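Quarterly update from the structural biology core.
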Amino acid sequence: MTQAPAKPEELWRWLCALARFRPEGDRARGQIISVHAEPARAALGEHAEAALLAGGSAGVLARRALDAQAEQLFAHYAPLCTPGSACAPSPECFVVAHLGQSLDGRIGPPSGEPEAITGAEDMRHNHRMRALFDVVLVGAGTVSNDNPQLTVRHVEGDNPVRVVLDPDRRLSPKYAIFNDGLAPTLLLCRTERCGSDERHGQADVVGVGDGCSPRAVVRELERRGLRRIFIEGGGVTVSRFLAASCLDRLQLAISPLIMGQGRPGIDLGETLRLRPSVRRFVLDDDILFECKFR
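Predicted structure, tokenized:
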């Protein structure tokens, strides 16, 4: 009997299983990975009944037919499910950053008060990204301004490890992310600002060398087995990782809004002429540009 085309909910479970697949050691390197449909699980080797196959030059292939909505979901997220993970040719981390901004490049008002710049579909996209990655990372300014939860709520999936980058320990432990216990949470700061076995609310405090530089942060997370890193803001943090050449992808969701003034998105303090390859997706009234740097 011919199987009915898979619906978005089914495909999403398969993609999550693929993105979170972690075989022991380096056994997956160069091998095909199969994703089984029910229950959704990934395994090494090519299996005839697999719904998805990943690995090699072909990337991710759908072995089951997909309905129209599932095809759109596959086109958007399947390319993000294998680079830098244990099934990729290289064990290096895969780092993706996202900013939602106005037409004139603002991510928030000058006051720093929280304001939704992009729409509900971009918020849902962020939750999908959290579900597909080991880590969601934000800077101290994002916590101070938005007091975010950084959990997966609008889609199915597991919460990632939450990482707050606060080199100088300027955040107090009062924020919800340090106390709600909804997901493992790390506070990363300069080594000299960290005591032994110290906690910040319920979050573990981790000292990072080299002034808490982006490369040192990525190395520390990789040391902990956290290789798929999603940076959700803010503008200062994303700009630092971009300037340090630590991003594989940069996603910019552009809202049809002109603010005139406000906090900038990308601000590198110098003039660049980067022209990466780009994918484009429509998120209701917003347009998402995904820049690929390598």
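Residues 84-90 have pLDDT under 50 and may be disordered.
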